[in-house]
From TrEMBL:
InterPro entries: Glyco_trans_2-like, Nucleotide-diphossugar_trans, TPR-like_helical_dom_sf. One of its GO terms (molecular function) is glycosyltransferase activity. It comes from Clostridium lapidicellarium. It holds the Pfam family Glycos_transf_2. The keyword NADP does not apply. This is Glycosyltransferase.
Length: 352
C-alpha cells in the first residue's frame, strides 16, 4: 500500500485483510497525521518515500519491498467485505501457482441503499517474480500479461477523504513543465476536465483519444457516454444519440447506451422509439468478465422504471404497472416506485 494522511480509513482497511496476507507493506509518502502509528499495530514494514507527483514511482517502490510469492495491492479507503474475505480464503486453499494475476471486481459506486451501481475489474493479486510495473504518474495502472484468472472476489471502495483538485493540478503541473502526455494521460486529463465542468477543453482531449487507433475500446465507450450525458443535459438529443451509436463501433450495444438513447427519445416525446431502446436494454446480457465500466442500475431497474413512464404516457397502464413492479423488485423502498404504486391504485390498476 502507498498512503498519506489516511488516519480515518487505514485501520478499517488493514483490519479487513490482516488474516488473509503473510506480510503488510506500507509506503508512506509524507503523512502528517497518525497514519503510521496506526499501521504499526499491523506491521513493522513501514517505509518512507519522498513524493514526486508520481503514483507509479511510489507503487513500484512498494512492490519492490515485497518478499512473498504474490502481491495484493489496495488503497487505504478500500476494504474486503465479510463475504469477500470468505471467498479469498477459499481461493487460497486451492490456489493455482501457475497464475500470473488474479482480477477482482472493484465496487466504486453505490446507491442510498448500499447496492453497487458502478464496478469494473482490476488486476489485484500478481505474481512477484513477474516483476510487473505500474505505469502513469496519475491514474496509474499495473501492466499485466500472462495467465490471468477472473475471480468472483470484490474489493469495495469506501471513500471518506477526497481531494477533488489533486489530480487535475498534477496534470497541469506536468503541462507547465512541458511533460509529454501519453495517450492514457490525454484520456484521464480529459476526464478531469469533464469532472470539473470544463467541457470545451475536455472534448478537445476526448477527440484526440477517439481519433487514435491505439486507445482501449472500453475507454472510448466511456468517452462516448460522457459526451452523450453532456448533450442530454443541454437538450442536444440527436447529438447525444450520435455518440452512443458511435460507442457501438467499439463493442456490442450495452444497457447503459440503450437507456441513454431511450431517454433522449423520451425527452422528445417519441415514446415508441423510447420503448424500443429501453426494452432492448432489458434483453441484453451483461458481460461477465469484461474489464469495462458497468452501472448495474441500467441492467436492472432503470429500464423498467422508464418503461413504466413510457407505457403510462401511451395509455397502457397495465403494462406500466407491470414494469413499475419489476423495478420495485430491485428497489422496494424507492420513493418514485412507491409514488407510482399509489398512482396506479388511484386509477384502479393496483389494489393494496
Amino acid at each position: 500500500m502507498i498512503v498519506k494522511n489516511e488516519e480515518n480509513t487505514i485501520k478499517r482497511c488493514l483490519s479487513s485483510v490482516r488474516d488473509l496476507v503473510d506480510e503488510i507493506i506500507i509506503v508512506d509518502t509524507g503523512s502528517s497525521d497518525s497514519t503510521k502509528d496506526i499501521c504499526k499495530n499491523f506491521t513493522d514494514k513501514i517505509y518512507d518515500f519522498e513524493w514526486t507527483d508520481d503514483f507509479s514511482s511510489a507503487r513500484n517502490f512498494s512492490f519492490s519491498m515485497a518478499t512473498e510469492d504474490y502481491i495484493l495491492w489496495l488503497d487505504a479507503d478500500d476494504i474486503l467485505l465479510p463475504e469477500d474475505i470468505k471467498k479469498f480464503k477459499i481461493m487460497k486453499e486451492s490456489f493455482d501457482s501457475s497464475l500470473d494475476s488474479v482480477t477482482m471486481k472493484y465496487n466504486v459506486g453505490f446507491d442510498e441503499y448500499g447496492n453497487t451501481t458502478l464496478s469494473y475489474r482490476r488486476n489485484r493479486l500478481v505474481k512477484a517474480s513477474r516483476n510487473f510495473k505500474w505505469v502513469g504518474f496519475v491514474h496509474e495502472y499495473l501492466e499485466v500479461h500472462g495467465n490471468i484468472f477472473n475471480s468472483d472476489i470484490a474489493v469495495t471502495h469506501k471513500k471518506i477523504n477526497y481531494s477533488p483538485n489533486r489530480n487535475i493540478q498534477m496534470y497541469e503541473n506536468k503541462l507547465k513543465k512541458g511533460i509529454h502526455f501519453s495517450l492514457r494521460d490525454i484520456l484521464y486529463y480529459g476526464n478531469e476536465l469533464y469532472d470539473h465542468k470544463r467541457y470545451n477543453m475536455a472534448f478537445q482531449y476526448y477527440s484526440k483519444f477517439l481519433k487514435s487507433d491505439k486507445g482501449w475500446s472500453e475507454d472510448k465507450i466511456r468517452i462516448c457516454s460522457n459526451i452523450s450525458d453532456y448533450c442530454l443535459s443541454v437538450n442536444k438529443f440527436e447529438k447525444s444519440r450520435k455518440y452512443i451509436f458511435k460507442s457501438f463501433e467499439y463493442d456490442n450495444p450495452r444497457a447503459e447506451g440503450c437507456c441513454r438513447v431511450g431517454f433522449s427519445f423520451l425527452m422528445e416525446n417519441k415514446l415508441h422509439q423510447a420503448v424500443f431502446w429501453y426494452e432492448m436494454a432489458l434483453k441484453l446480457e451483461k458481460p461477465k468478465n469484461s474489464l469495462g465500466f458497468f452501472n448495474d442500475a441500467y441492467w436492472t431497474w432503470i429500464p423498467h422504471l422508464q418503461l413504466c413512464v413510457c407505457y403510462d404516457k401511451l395509455g397502457n397502464h397495465k403494462l406500466a404497472y407491470f414494469h413499475n413492479e419489476m423495478a420495485g423488485k430491485f428497489r422496494p423502498n424507492d420513493k418514485r416506485i412507491l409514488f407510482n404504486k399509489k398512482y396506479f391504485q388511484n386509477i384502479g390498476i393496483y389494489k393494496m
